[in-house]
Design brief:
Elements lengths: L12 H15 L6 H17 L5 H17 L2
Helix pairs in contact: 2-3
Keywords: Membrane, Transmembrane, Transmembrane helix
Length: 74
């Protein structure tokens, strides 16, 4: 068994996401992640509106979550 640090950084995902969200809340539209995350939320809501199974709030949250993840882990 290898005791070295894993190559990926997913073990710090929650603290990184929390810091990113706090920065977005404090800086608003001036934060570099705000616009991409809002765009992802809109795209997710529109895509969910086209699908009969998924409602737009679920699409909104999913789209925002995907873009936030992409901003944290490029």
């Amino acid at each position: 068994m290898d005791d070295r640090e894993p190559n990926h950084q997913d073990h710090k995902l929650i603290p990184d996401a929390t810091n990113e969200l706090k920065g977005m809340a404090k800086q608003g539209m001036a934060h570099p992640s705000t616009k991409p995350v809002l765009t992802g939320a809109v795209v997710g809501a529109v895509a969910a509106g086209l699908l009969p199974v998924v409602t737009w709030p679920i699409g909104l949250v999913a789209g925002a979550g995907i873009m936030l993840y992409k901003r944290i882990r490029p």
